[in-house]
Write a structure and sequence with these properties.
This protein has a three-stranded parallel beta sheet with strand order 1-2-3. A two-stranded parallel ribbon has the order 4-5. The chain is 56% helix and 6% strand. β4 (149-151), α9 (157-174) and β5 form a beta-alpha-beta unit. It is mainly alpha-helical and 352 residues long. The protein has helices at residues 18-34, 46-50, 57-74, 91-99, 105-109, 112-121, 129-132, 134-144, 157-174, 189-192, 217-225, 246-254, 257-263, 270-279, 284-310, 313-341, 346-349; strands spanning 5-10, 39-44, 82-85, 149-151, 182-184. The protein binds tryptophan (TRP). The site of tryptophan has 14 residues, from β1 and α8.
């Protein structure tokens, strides 16, 4: 059977939050530990982060460490996964340049995630070219490692689609060279789109609606207690809406049967709690208190591991450095194949 290889990553523009955790990080750790994969590559996408942060190099640089700490805190293990920094693998930029020849401007403009981001950032007519092209560079990231599997959130679906198109086009012009990847989405719907605590579509630092993985217990409490719920659910006895209610979406993403046994033994499980809320007679405060305990239980070990790694910045640095050296070797081998397929390996073959 073909080797099973994972590649995924994050832009280092801030600390990672619980949306990242349920949407991707927790799954990565499971996949890493499953033994089903021959290689796991986790990339800190600093070059991609610079595509819309060219004026803020210090922000990107400082967050490399923060993201690495969040990774290690969640249980990514450098013995099992290669954690590396994108800009330390310059082969990726060269691949990107060749792949750009295979994508039309019209196709790049159609990417719905990029469209949404352009709008969100208010770029108007001044979209940086690098930002516009980042899905192409993402295809380079994925194919350089011959990744078969990309665990990521729903927002990455258009990137994977574009990557597969590039692979097809490349292979059909230059011969079978690149590996076609597929996306691995989070298992449950709530994990796919965890909203911010204000109920807004997505958790994002600029909206100030995140709960971070490194959040202190008191802040977790304050944030959960301030969460948006069903605005029609004014009195305890009123019937409430569960659908689209952030508190319930978080419970769907985080709570496990043992949380009920431990913190809310009057209910057998989430369904029973939801039914009660729908009927009326269940107050938001009670549900929020439960969610708070669930989050505290889930985040405590992550925070503790993070604190332990924070004491060892030299070791984290070495992990990223060694990971980047290893990643570079793999990407260089793919680039050699690409150059040969494209017939630009003149000085390797010794003639034109
Ligand atoms: N776009 C991803 C993000 O926004 C980061 C990323 C860069 C990535 N290259 C990738 C994810 C390749 C998966 C595969 O965080």
């Amino acid at each position: 059977m073909k080797e099973q290889i994972i590649l995924t990553g994050d832009r280092p523009t801030g600390r990672l939050h619980v949306g990242h955790y349920v949407g991707s990080l927790a799954r990565r750790v499971e996949l890493q530990d499953s033994g089903d994969y021959d290689k796991v590559y986790i990339m800190i996408a600093d070059a991609q982060a610079l595509t819309d942060n060219a004026e803020h190099p210090e922000k990107v640089r400082q967050n490399i460490m923060q993201v690495a700490l969040d990774y290690l805190a969640c249980g990514l293990d450098p013995e099992k996964s290669t954690i590396f920094v994108q800009s330390a693998v310059p082969e990726l930029t060269e691949l990107t340049f060749y792949y750009m020849d295979l994508v039309t401007v019209a196709r790049a403009e159609r990417n719905p995630t990029v469209k949404a981001e352009i709008k969100q950032r208010g770029f108007g007519a001044s979209i940086p070219m690098g930002f516009f092209c980042y899905p192409i560079s993402q295809a380079a990231d994925i194919t350089a490692f011959r990744a078969t599997t990309v665990p990521a959130g729903e927002d990455q679906m258009p990137m994977l689609e574009q990557c597969r198109e590039i692979v097809h086009k490349f292979n059909s012009i230059y011969g079978e060279t690149l590996t076609e990847p597929h996306i691995l989405l989070p298992a449950n719907e709530a994990c796919r789109r965890l909203p911010g605590i204000d109920g807004k579509a997505k958790m994002s630092k600029s909206l100030g609606n995140c709960i971070y993985l490194s959040e202190e217990p008191e802040d977790i409490k304050t944030k959960v207690m301030s969460m948006f719920t069903d605005p029609q659910h004014l009195r305890v006895e009123d019937p409430g809406r569960v659908e689209g209610n952030p508190v319930f979406l978080y419970l769907e993403a985080f709570c496990k049967p043992e949380h009920f046994t431990e913190f809310l033994p009057d209910y057998h499980g989430l369904e029973e709690l939801e039914d009660h809320y729908r009927r009326g007679g269940l107050g938001d405060v009670k549900v929020k208190r439960f969610l708070e305990r669930v989050l505290q239980a889930e985040l405590a070990p992550i925070r503790a591991r993070r604190k332990a790694w924070e004491q060892r910045p030299g070791d984290v640095y070495e992990i990223l450095k060694q990971g980047s050296i290893q990643a570079r070797e793999t990407a260089a081998a793919t680039l050699r194949d690409v150059r040969a397929a494209m017939q630009i390996d003149y000085f390797e073959r010794g003639s034109f």
